[in-house]
Amino acid sequence: MIKGGIFFNIVSFNVIIDTACKINNLGLSLKLLKRMTMMLENFVWSNSITYNCIINGFCNNEKLLLVDKMHHKMVKATKEPRAKYLEI
């Protein structure tokens, strides 16, 4: 889509990442997160919603070690996690 002159924003990335997590395609969600960080020159940054979608996907798939790793990445990126994930 970028070749066609259409650029993604944070909302479109978050929708696609959330959908990928809901269909258990966690690999795609992580690839998209990485792609977002590569697009910094286009002013697309991940936010707490991005990380919370991925953390929720990991929780739903019982990948608790990955939840912890993603939480640390989120805190390192100074994003605030939602309270329900702190209870894990």
Q: Would you report the number of β strands?
A: 0
The termini sit apart by 38 Å
Helix content: 55-70%
Q: List SSEs in N-to-C order.
A: HHHHH
Rg over CA atoms, rounded to whole Å, is: 13 Å
In terms of structural class, how would the helical and strand content be classed? mainly alpha
Q: Kindly give the count of domains.
A: 1
Family: Belongs to the PPR family. P subfamily.
Keywords: Repeat
PPR repeats: 47-81
Protein name: Pentatricopeptide repeat-containing protein
Write a structural description.
The protein has helices at residues 10-22, 26-38, 48-60, 64-76, 83-86. With 88 residues, the chain is mostly helical. It has one domain. It is globular and about 40 Å long. The mean pLDDT is 79. Belongs to the PPR family. P subfamily.
List the helices and strands and how they pair.
Layout: H1 10-22, H2 26-38, H3 48-60, H4 64-76, H5 83-86
Helix pairs in contact: 1-2, 1-3, 2-3, 3-4
